[in-house]
Each structure stands twice: as C-alpha cells, then as structure tokens.
Write a structure and sequence with these properties.
Layout (H helix, E strand, L loop, with lengths): L1 E4 L2 E4 L2 E7 L12 E5 L5 H20 L8 H12 L2 H10 L4 H10 L6 H18 L9 H11 L6 H5 L20 H20 L27 H8 L2 H4 L20 H12 L3 H5 L6 E4 L2 E6 L15 E4 L2 H5 L2 H10 L18 H15 L9 H13 L4 H8 L17 H8 L7
Antiparallel strand pairs: 1-2, 2-3, 3-4, 5-6, 6-7
Length: about 450
C-alpha cells in the first residue's frame, strides 16, 4: 500500500483506512493494525471517511477494557458501513478452501515465477497432500505442520525415482533401510514453499491464525560449499585425453589416449569457465552473435536478449574479453565453423533440461566426467571453475573491483559503483590476460 497521509493509503486505485494498534492490546482478536477498505477511488471523499472512521476506532480502543471481545464486531460493522463490497468478501470467506484449492488459486497468481520455481512449489504442495491428505485449511495447524516435517525427515533422497513411485506417501511403508535421506537443505526448501503459501493465504484472508510453517526449518549443520580445483585436479582434467587426443570420440573410450581431439561442448565449455569465470548457464546459452569484436577485443556478450536466456542478476549483463589462451586454442575457428553450419547457439549440442535451463544437462555431463577421471569430491563441480578463476585472478594481482566486473558480481555496498560506466574493454582484456594456470 502507498501512504497518502496519516491513516490514508491507496492500492490499485482504491483508498484504505489503516492504523496501528498499541502493542499492549495485541491479542488473537486485535491484531497489530486495522485496515478498512473505503470502497472509494475519490481522494476527497476518502479523506472524509478516513477521519470519521478514525474517530470511532480511537473511541473503541479507548474503551477496549470495557468490552475486549466486542471490538472485532465493531470493526467489522465499520467495514460493512463504509464498504458494501465487504459483505460479498465476508460470504466468500465462509466458503473455506481445502488445501488443493488454495494451491490452485495461489499458483495462478505466480505468473512471474521461473519455471523451476513453479515446478518446485507444485512438488512441495503435492508432497504435503501425499503425506497428510487434502485437508480443509482450518484443519492445518502447527501439529499438522510438525507431522509433515517428521515425515519428510524419513523420506530418502530422490525417493520417487529410486523406489519407482509417484506418491511419497507410499514411501513411508516401504523398506528404506540403508538409503541416504534427504538433506536438511532440501527439506527446508519444501517447508519454505509451504510457509510462503500460507503467508499469501493469510494476506488474502483465506487462512485465519498464525502461519503453521513459520520457524519450522531444520537447522543445517553446515552450508554446502563449492571448492576451487587444486593444481593437480586441473592438470588431471585439462591434460586428459579430451584435450590431448582420444582413442574414440564417444563414451568412456573418449578418455582413453589416442590421436583425435573432438572440439565440442565438453571440450570448450570447461575451458571457457576456467578462463572467463562465467556461470555454466551463461556459457551454455551463448549465441553465435554473442561472440564479437569490440574495440579490437573479442568478447563474450552476456545478455538476456533472447527468449531462451535467463540471468541470475541484473549485474550479470556484461561483456567479458576472451582470454588469449582460448583464442590460441582455436575458439574463433570453432565459432566460424558453427556459423557456417548455420547454428544459432554456440553449443547446440547442449539441450535444455526439464527446468528450461541448458546448464542442468551439461552439469550432469561434467559431474560424470569428474567421476570417470577419478577426481570427483564433495564440493567439486562445474561452479568450482568460477572459484578457481577468482582465485587465479587474485593470485595474478588483479584488483578485486576488476574481478567483480568480469564475473558479474555487484558492488552494491560501495557508493562509487553507481557512478560511471565501469572499466573499458581494453583494461579488462589487459587484466584478464594476466591470468595463467600450470596446465
């Protein structure tokens, strides 16, 4: 709501009376504030109604101790008096939703959510129904929320796929001895989705009472961390048969020493990550047109100009000079080859995953490569190349602000970051070319 003046607010063209309640009077009946729709779009009329309502509300609060249980009826009477639409709204509230109906209405309003976020919410809501049933909202209180949490900690990781069932409710009766359980982080994501749903329901007057999922998250013993590659791990990866020559171009035999180098996505994407610090999805969604000369420097133009692109933050939009090592290894030749093949994207051999991101497919491919090479460990993944890049720039003596500009981090806490247009491409190229690796 937008504040107009004392006690008068507007939203979507309509005016509202709004006032806070003294803290010592807060209880289940009298909340922190009173909001009354004035049923008017006229400012002058709304000002007059707001003053009239405020006089009555102040009187109710002043005599609250005489009739503490009657104040809610008096406030609702004001709503009916000044906004007849409240009658219809009150009748609508009497038609209580069951859980699945609430989810349906809520999801219809999540139009700005990413597909991955929507998919996760739907999975969390379906899981709740599987475990506790499609309950009326009034029956979902803290006890049900705690029961849901108790069930979730018993569910194994990737249970539906591993146990070949569509309902996680069935899993509770299966033999799951020895199976790895879900991580606290994953359980907390489901609880957070339900907490968000009930916060929305409370705001829209579909649910009465405290959010049953608030404060229910499991305390995580540690934060899952990504680690940079060690020098030995870098050498093991970039001196493997993929880069020196393979016996066969497909399957595990690609890791057997031979004479043929296949310069495809598996060859180029890790190299680009190592020498640019780009996020995996930023690389996978590059178009041919995104690699271009700017002021005598070849750059990766990271943008969201195409419908199939997505960026993490606004600061992700940037231009990154191409490290001379990538050009020496033939990246521009690969670019021209794919241009002649009429490819639109630089890596059309990397399809989209179920989450509508190109990175999810290649991430699994890269993880398998690390396992096949025998160097996979906790915290080592494709994103580790980004950590390795930042460490490498730091060791090369490149100042932090330059590195942040290259990797798309935002200096939001620095007032200077809001001024000027940043570093020139020539300066970024000069700093980037200081980066070297012992591989």
């Amino acid at each position: 709501m937008k504040a107009i003046e004392k006690n008068l607010y507007s939203r979507n063209g309509y005016y509202y009376y709004r006032t806070s309640i003294p803290k010592h009077l807060w209880n289940d009946t009298l909340k922190r504030e009173i909001i009354i729709a004035l049923g008017s779009k006229e400012l002058s009329e709304s000002r007059l109604i707001s003053v009239q309502i405020d006089l009555k509300v102040r009187e109710y609060i002043r005599h609250y101790h005489k009739d503490p249980l009657g104040i809610e009826d008096k406030i609702n009477a004001l709503r009916l008096e000044y906004n007849p639409r409240y009658i219809a709204k009150t009748e609508k509230r009497k038609q209580e939703y069951i859980f699945s109906q609430l989810c349906q209405v809520y999801l219809s309003e999540c139009t700005s959510d990413a597909l991955k976020t929507l998919k996760h919410k739907k999975m969390a809501f379906a899981g709740f129904i599987d475990l506790l049933g499609d309950l009326p909202l009034s029956k979902i209180v803290i006890e049900q929320a705690k029961q849901y949490k108790a069930y979730m900690v018993r569910i194994p990781k990737n249970a539906r796929q591993r146990l070949k069932t569509t309902s996680i409710g069935n899993i509770l009766n299966m033999d799951i001895k020895g199976m790895e359980l879900q991580s606290p982080k994953n359980i907390n994501k489901h609880i957070a989705a339900l907490a968000t749903l009930f916060n929305w329901a409370i705001r829209n007057e579909h649910y009465q009472g405290k959010n049953p999922f608030d404060g229910l998250a499991i305390k995580e013993s540690y934060r899952k961390k990504r680690f940079p590659f060690s020098t030995k791990e870098l050498q093991h990866l970039f001196q493997s048969a993929i880069y020196t020559g393979s016996y066969k171009l497909r399957g595990k035999q690609r890791l057997s020493k031979g004479d043929t180098v296949r310069k495809d996505a598996l060859y180029w994407i890790p190299l680009i990550g190592l020498y640019s610090g780009m996020r995996l999805n930023e690389i996978c969604q590059l178009y041919i047109k995104d690699i271009k000369p700017v002021k005598n420097c070849w750059v990766f133009d990271i943008n969201n100009d195409d419908d199939d692109k997505s960026l993490k933050t606004i600061s992700s939009i940037r231009q990154i000079p191409i490290h001379h090592k990538l050009i020496d290894m033939g990246l521009l030749d690969y670019l021209e080859e794919k241009r002649l093949d009429n490819w639109n994207r630089l890596f059309e051999d990397v399809p989209k995953g179920n989450d509508e991101k190109y990175s999810s497919v290649f991430s699994k491919r890269f993880t398998k490569l690390l396992k096949d090479l025998g160097i996979k460990r906790q915290g080592l993944c494709f994103h580790s190349l980004r950590h390795t890049f930042i460490d490498g720039m730091r060791c090369a003596g490149v100042e932090k602000a330059v590195c942040m500009a290259l990797v798309g981090h935002n200096e939001s806490k620095d007032i200077h970051s809001g001024y000027g247009s940043g570093y020139t491409i020539e300066r970024l190229q000069q700093e980037l070319n200081k980066l070297t690796y012992p591989i």
